[in-house]
Amino acid sequence: MHMDLEQLRQDMQKILAEWKNHSSIQAGNVFLIGCSTSEIAGEHIGSAGSGEIAEMLFEELKAFQHETGVVLAFQCCEHLNRSVVVERSVALARGWTIVSAIPHAKAGGSMAAHAFRSLDHAVLVEFVEADYGMDIGDTLIGMHLKHVAVPLRLGIKSLGQAHVTYAYTRPKLIGGERALYEK
Fold it and tell me: What span, in angstroms and rounded, lies between the C-alpha atoms of 77 and 72?
């Protein structure tokens, strides 16, 4: 299937513009992306990865990072146990366990593989606790979101042919009936 990369870019820009306006976005927080470029292209997840789509999305996500100060994290597919690509400095500062694998299109996915090649000092970590998540193509990012994840309803529900879901997290409410939650 031929994808209109310019239309995809415009849609991604709209999605990220909505994210920028969300009150929870804060510099230094982790923004997790799970992405099936196959699903975007209208194919079955893991069957038709696209380096072109991954490159375009990465460019838009890096611009978003520059504008917001968030930390980007890219989830791999199940063949690498849904490990996550991040900058080495982020992994070390947060005490995340670095694992030994190099994502590629058939083990990790095109998006994670592109991120691994494109970040300055990329590493793979076993697990993260992200503050925000964007799941493009139903890649199942929930295992890497902090408790408590809250669905975010943005205007765009799909990117290309892929279903997209969004979430942010909030601290757990503890204490019961005597607790106060607002300052």
Answer: 17
Percent of the chain with pLDDT over 90: 80
Q: CB under 8 Å to 29, separation ≥6 — which residues? A: 70, 71, 131, 132
For residue 178, being part of any structural domain is answered with: no
Inter-CA distances, 154 with 14, 18, 57, 142, 148, Å: 10, 7, 18, 18, 19
In a domain, residue 180? The reply is no
- Helices of type H across 22-129: 37-40, 51-68, 88-94, 110-118
Query: Within a domain: residue 138?
Result: yes
> Looking at residue 106, which CATH number applies to its domain?
3.40.50.10360
Residue 1: predicted pLDDT: 45
CB–CB of 88/121 below 8 Å? yes
Nearest-angstrom CA–CA distance, 160 and 153: 18
pLDDT digits 0-9 by tens, 68-115: 999 999 999 989 999 999 999 999 999 999 999 999 998 999 999 999
- Residue numbers of the domain that contains 117: 5-171
What is the pLDDT confidence band of residue 133, given thresholds at 50, 70 and 90?
very high
